[in-house]
Design a protein that fits this description.
Elements (H helix, E strand, L loop, with lengths): L12 E7 L4 H10 L3 E3 L2 E2 L7 E2 L4 E5 L16 E4 L1 E2 L2 E2 L1 E3 H16 L13 E4 L8 E8 L2 E8 L2 E8 L3 E3 L1
Antiparallel strand pairs: 1-5, 1-6, 1-9, 2-5, 3-4, 7-8, 10-11, 10-14, 11-12, 12-13
Length: 168
């Protein structure tokens, strides 16, 4: 389900729906067929077709004040309406808008850029718990880089993201 808001006037609160595992899109499609407004913030990943920003969760609004939310619970792909005790969980419209903006921003980042780190390149870790350690690249694939480090007198190969390495 595309993470777009309809052009209809938008009420201020959204119900939170938990889908069955890996059934976010199916639940979104079924709820849309029942005339609910549905938002499923999605990430487009370099190595995956898509991924939900909040796995197993989506946001739903009734079409109008007379549209009941009761059928949501028995919709194909839906596990339950999220509740706090007997009260249905709702979020303000701004939270849904922000989630969509974050999903768009994260999808536009290109983590799989060509980084030029080839086998034999000397590098230094510049972030994380191994910051400051120097090593040699042994292999790389997209944003993953394998680095041979010496830790406590032993050679260890670690996997790191290219963004945490600097060539020396």
């Amino acid at each position: 389900m595309n993470a777009r808001l309809p052009n209809d006037p938008i009420p201020t609160r959204w119900y939170v729906v938990k889908s069955k595992p890996r059934a976010e899109r199916e639940a979104a499609e079924q709820l849309t067929r029942q005339d609910y407004r549905v938002v499923l913030p999605e990430l487009i990943q370099p190595r995956k077709r898509w991924e939900a920003l909040f796995p197993s969760y989506l946001f739903v609004q009734p079409a109008d004040e007379t549209h009941s939310i009761a059928p949501v619970r028995s919709t194909l792909g839906v596990s339950q309406l999220v509740r706090f005790g007997t009260t249905h969980a709702t979020v303000p419209d701004q939270v849904v808008q922000d989630a969509l903006a974050i999903a768009r921003w994260m999808s536009q980042r290109d983590e799989a850029v060509v980084h030029g780190l080839t086998a034999g390149t000397p590098v230094m870790m510049v972030e994380g718990p191994l910051k400051g350690l120097q090593g040699l690249v042994t292999a790389s694939a997209q944003d993953r880089v394998f680095v041979l480090l010496e830790i406590m007198g032993r050679e260890v190969t670690v996997q790191a993201q290219a963004r945490v390495l600097r060539t020396m």
